Each structure stands twice: as structure tokens, then as C-alpha cells.
């Protein structure tokens, strides 16, 4: 497993386990071998997890954006997804390598975010592991992403869940007592 070898390499260089969690950890996978028609930009997929001392996590990496266009055709585009705090942004290229690039889609993670793992699906003669996310209160706001491996799909699911938990914690921490006053007036 690639993540175990990277973790062992970082720890063997003299860093403690506590400092490993505050550094950037990058997991890279080579493209699938064989005659897969799923296109991958640059040839490798990765999920990066960055943490600073302010406890603001950033998850980023390559995913497949799945959907249906305006004339009803399915599409599968290779996109770069970033989760920064409570914001999610989707790019055509890696914003770390191309500074100044604008996101093509942007959203906010709220406490009503739901993430479901739909399992494996055949897309363009290749197998992808699909995640669906939507708003519990407004199910018209939804989307699907897919990953090449089940492990990557699990990491993205955990990243979305972690971001949602941070939003919930911030809401409860910032929550002030709310007093509702009801005045009943007599009907005439």
C-alpha cells in the first residue's frame, strides 16, 4: 500500500508521529494498467491532506466528476477537487501547479450534507467507485464523484465527513442562547 510506505519513510527520517499529522502527506497511485478508456490527466491520481496549526484541514486530489449534460448524455470528466475548511472547489487543473486558476464549480459544506457510497460502477469500460453527496433539506442540490480505487473513495468520504463535523462543531461553539418570545394577541 502506497500510504504505508510514505508514512514509514516520513517516520524513519526522524520525525515523530505527532509531526507527521501536521505535515503534508501525499498518496500517489499510478494509472490503471490495461486498455482502460478512462482518461487521467498527468497519469497519476493523488489525495493530499494538509493540516496547519490553526486546525484547518485541506483535502485535495483528482477525482472523476460524473453527471448528465443538458441533452441527456452521461459525462465523466477528470477534475481536481479541493476541500478547504467548509468550502469545496472543483478545478480543471491542479491549482497548486497553476496558481491563479479559477474553480469551475464551488460550494459550501453545511451540517445538512449527506455523503453516500454507491459502490462500483462501469464508466467508459472501466470500473469506478462512486460517491453521491446531496443536501438533506434540498435534494436538488446534489452531485456525484468517482475514484479509481475503493480506498480513494473511502478517503474522500472521510474528508467530507470530517469537514461536515468541523462545521457542526463551529456552529455549536458559536451558538449563543436563543430566546424566542411569543406574543399571543386576542382575535377580534
List the helices and strands and how they pair.
Blueprint: H1 2-12, H2 17-22, E1 25-29, E2 45-51, E3 57-68, E4 74-84, E5 87-91, E6 105-108, E7 113-123, E8 126-135, E9 142-147, H3 150-174
Antiparallel strand pairs: 1-2, 2-3, 3-4, 3-9, 4-5, 5-6, 7-8, 8-9
Structure description:
The chain is an alpha+beta fold. The chain has one domain (22-173): PH-domain like (Roll). It has 3 helices and 9 strands, in the order H-H-E-E-E-E-E-E-E-E-E-H. It has helices at 2-12, 17-22, 150-174; strands spanning 25-29, 45-51, 57-68, 74-84, 87-91, 105-108, 113-123, 126-135, 142-147. Strands 1, 2, 3, 4, 5, 6, 7, 8 and 9 form a 9-stranded antiparallel sheet that branches. A hairpin with a 6-residue loop joins strand 8 and strand 9. The longest helix is centred in the last third of the chain and has 25 residues, at 150-174.
Key features?
PH-domain like, 188 residues, EDR2-like, alpha+beta, disordered N terminus, 9-stranded antiparallel sheet, 9 strands, globular
Please give the number of β-strands: 9
* Sequence stretches where pLDDT stays below 50 over 5 or more residues: 1-44
Number of helical segments with 4 or more residues: 3
DSSP strand content: 35-45%
SSE pattern: HHEEEEEEEEEH
Which architecture does the CATH hierarchy give at level 2? Roll
Q: Can you tell me the overall shape?
A: globular
Instruction: Output the CATH homologous superfamily.
Output: Pleckstrin-homology domain (PH domain)/Phosphotyrosine-binding domain (PTB)
Number of domains: 1
CATH class: Mainly Beta
Class from helix and strand fractions: alpha+beta
Radius of gyration: 20 Å
Helix coverage percent: 10-25%
The average pLDDT score comes to 72
Give me the CATH fold name: PH-domain like
Biggest sheet descriptor = 9 strands, antiparallel
End-to-end Cα distance, whole Å, is: 75 Å
